[in-house]
Design goal:
The chain has helices at residues 45-51, 81-87, 102-112, 118-131, 135-138, 151-163, 181-194, 207-213, 231-236, 241-247; strands spanning 5-16, 19-30, 34-38, 62-70, 73-74, 88-91, 169-173, 199-203, 216-221, 224-230. It has 252 residues and is α/β, with parallel strands linked by helices. It has a domain at 5-96 and 168-247: P-loop containing nucleotide triphosphate hydrolases (Rossmann fold, 3-Layer(aba) Sandwich). Strands 6-7-8-3-9-10 form a 6-stranded mixed β-sheet, sandwiched between helices. A 4-stranded antiparallel β-sheet has the order 2-1-4-5, with no helix packed on it. The longest helix is centred in the middle third of the chain and has 14 residues, at 118-131. The protein is globular and about 55 Å long. The two termini are 34 Å apart. The structure holds adenosine-5'-triphosphate. Residues 16, 19, 21, 39, 41-47, 59 line the site of adenosine-5'-triphosphate (ATP). One of its GO terms (molecular function) is ATP binding.
Length: 252
């Protein structure tokens, strides 16, 4: 697979007050691929994920040094956070539909961006729900509350909501950890399908999941990237003993 850089991360450090949560991260993240971040709880996976759409800007006392570029543009120096977040969407661990109808959830972003014509919104809502592989399950209840469906369906509605603003990148923070195995497989299939058009970065505690769906895997430990390589390489021939211990469950 061709590696075409989407993000380039240079000497990235992040502090929450005096606590250093990310230590000198250097890596390239590639277009049209799924990259998985794995590692034990508290090692900085979510923190790093959130630096990619500047969600940490919202946390008080955060200090960041180094830089991240997207398509060559520095996302901290040369781009405002709002623009960045329309280009880099995020799906969270707990499905978080807004307390409104399924239709209004998906139309929310486009409306904020000034789209109000019903026929255009109808089209965006249908297309996004189809892309998120949930259209057939909800097409007859678009006006019903998005909270009145299963957790797995809610998560796909949230993915549709993210897709509706046509981002280039989707960040997923443990998107299946609150879901049953069938819904999990649906989201995994969906991620694999979406990577044709999007760059996807996923934090997961599920090693099988990383192995099943990702092209690249980064193993994090106490704020550092210990090893980053093709997923096959990481899982079959890890170079670092710590990576090997973690993926074989001998970590501790
Ligand atoms: N807002 C915050 N203020 C202070 N410390 C924080 C904050 N958020 C995270 N941390 C700390 O930073 C470290 C990294 O946390 P982070 O959530 O990135 O880890 P993680 O690898 O995603 O963990 P998990 O797998 O449990 O979600 C942890 O020690 C955590 O306690």
């Amino acid at each position: 697979m061709k590696n075409e850089t989407k993000f380039s991360v240079k000497d990235l450090n992040l502090y929450y007050g005096n606590f250093q949560a990310l230590k000198n991260i250097n890596m390239e993240l590639y277009k049209g691929q799924i990259t998985a971040f794995i590692g034990p709880s508290g090692c900085g996976k979510s923190t790093f994920l959130k630096t990619i759409n500047r969600m940490n800007d919202l946390v008080e006392g955060v200090k960041i040094s180094g830089n991240i570029t997207m398509d060559g543009v520095d996302i901290y120096q040369d781009m405002d956070a709002i623009t960045l977040r329309t280009r880099v969407g995020m799906v969270f661990q707990q499905p978080n539909p807004f307390p409104m109808s399924i239709y209004d959830n998906v139309a929310y972003g486009p409306r904020i961006h000034g789209i109000h014509k019903k026929s255009v919104l109808d089209e965006i809502v249908e297309k996004s729900l189809k892309q998120a592989a949930i259209w057939d399950e909800v097409k007859d209840k678009l006006k019903k509350s998005a909270l009145a469906v299963s957790g797995g369906q809610q998560q796909r509605i949230c993915i549709a909501r993210t897709l509706a603003i046509e981002p280039e990148v989707i960040l997923m923070d443990e998107p299946t950890s609150a879901l049953d195995p069938i819904s999990t497989l649906k989201i995994e299939d969906l991620a694999t399908e979406l990577k044709k058009d999007y760059t996807i970065i996923i934090v997961t505690h599920n090693m099988q999941q990383a192995g099943r769906i990702s092209d690249k895997t980064a193993f994090f430990l106490t704020g550092e990237v210990i090893e980053y390589d093709d997923t096959e390489q990481i899982f079959n021939f890890p170079k670092n003993k710590k990576t090997e211990d973690y993926i074989t469950g001998r970590f501790g």
